[in-house]
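Researcher: Good morning. I'm working through a list of sequences from a screen, and I'd like to move beyond sequence-only analysis. For each chain I'm collecting a predicted structure so we can compare shapes side by side. This is the next one on the list. No need for commentary yet; just the structure.
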Amino acid sequence: YFASVLDGFVVFVFIALIVFAIRRGIFRPKQLTSFLHGPWDGFIILGLIFLVIFTLAFVEGFQYAVSQEWTPIGAFLGPLLASAGPQVALAGYRVSWWLHMFTVLGFLIYLPRSKHLHLLATPFNVFFSNYQPKGALPMLENIEEREDYGVSKVEQFTWKQLLDGYACTECGRCNTVCPAMNTGKPLYPKEIILGVKEELFERSDEILSDNTIFSKLGLVKLKTDETETEHQPMIGGTISKEALWSCTSCMACMEICPVAIEHVPKIIDMRRSLVMEESEFPQEVTSLFNNIERNGNPWEISNDTRAEWAAELAVPLMGENPDADVLYWVGCMGSFDLRNKKVSTAVAKILQAAKVNFAILGPEETCTGDPARRIGNEYLWQTQAQQNIETLNNYGFNLAGQENGHASHNGHSTDTTKHRTIITACPHCFNTIKNEYPQLGGNYDVVHHTVFIEQLMSKGEITLPEGFDKRKLTYHDPCYIGRYNDVYDEPRRVLTVLNNNVTEMRRNRNKSFCCGGGGGRAWMEEKVGKRVNQTRVNEALETNAEVLAASCPFCITMFEDGVKGIEAEEKLKIEDISEIIASAIEK
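Model: Good morning. Structure tokens for this chain:
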């Protein structure tokens, strides 16, 4: 029975080798190509696997010729090989056996320096996958006392980040979904991971020579003046700076990776080194950093004007209504950007129609620091986060400290049994407050506005006319509530109540294509290749939709620019889901 199963597997492997050899050699997909090494490693591995099963087949054939020991392959080859005589068959058996063993052992020696190392590394890489919220970047601890910020040398990566390189199968799926790569930018996510691995191999002796155990065992070359060589820097050498700045942090690469590799945190770690150690970053984000630090928002606008958009709506501030059940976190785009003020107004009208007891922070709200953190300015993010956490805690929103009730300092009686929620229309604010502020002790119940609206509808607190919107709609999944936080169904449920003509773009849900504004890219010039936002707008136009519905202020801004760039303003309107809902309520 075992022999039949083994030989069936051998035949299966042989057929697979033919298929994959044709695929690699003739119909080679573009994503299999690597700039760091040629295709020979893959062909060597295919050759070694072929030798393993080829020599095994002849071992069985000669064994049958000598001893009549039955196996399916042996019974097929044995009679042919036996015709040479018993002595030749015995010699053939011994030669085949030794060739088989040498091939297997040689394969084991070659494997650690080959792409096939993923067979050993992948189970461990998947087992040790990040169990923290996937939308949260790792925090730099003790930032005031550190001597290094981020990663400029390969040994500064964590052991898990280095294990990612060993686990990479080089399938290139990450390249096929990357919005930067797909629009002609110099970012290839696979090359980032392979670059880290190649850098580790290149500098392995230098790194391990400081370890006395490896040195005494003679496993590494000792560093001497003669043997020490100058290595090119990892950033700007093996990994280009242009590639790092092209990332939109959309996490499509991580979503599609079959072996749980984390590309984005590595890119941000290297950005941190460039920003905080080298003061090297795109010139256009200088004003962003300065404005967030000085004004609490990305523009040269006083934070005192943050609540002006709500003046005509009589929306109370938290200082005026400290017992509000819901805090509407408006965000910088919703407070200052002319286009997104309309979204803020729509959300406020929906909350008022549902008679929700809510308030906004107004001038007490400041930028969450998300763009600074994604660009690499971790220090500025922590400064902003600590300020916001203090404000939210003062109003009793913190879950961890059992402060999620009415604020005790406001002169009102405290009801700590009453749950309090933060809602926001900005996925970036949502992800930062929900998933990253806990790193600094800020634990809050945060809900995206589309989810909150869906909850209001399910409770009957707002009633919408079914089929109110007759236009053909398509919905774009923002990266920071989609892939980052798995919010896919609620926005669609809200839309389908109002409109029975909602269609999907070819890339949707967890395979959605980024708008191009994440990772701080909204504040940088797009100088190379096609524009990401225009690429996504064209995908929306393919559906013949009249309205592209979104639920992110960055997406709305990027798409507004996109339709203008391709002169499609008359064909496609960009609207937030809340604007569609507010229109239905007003009718």
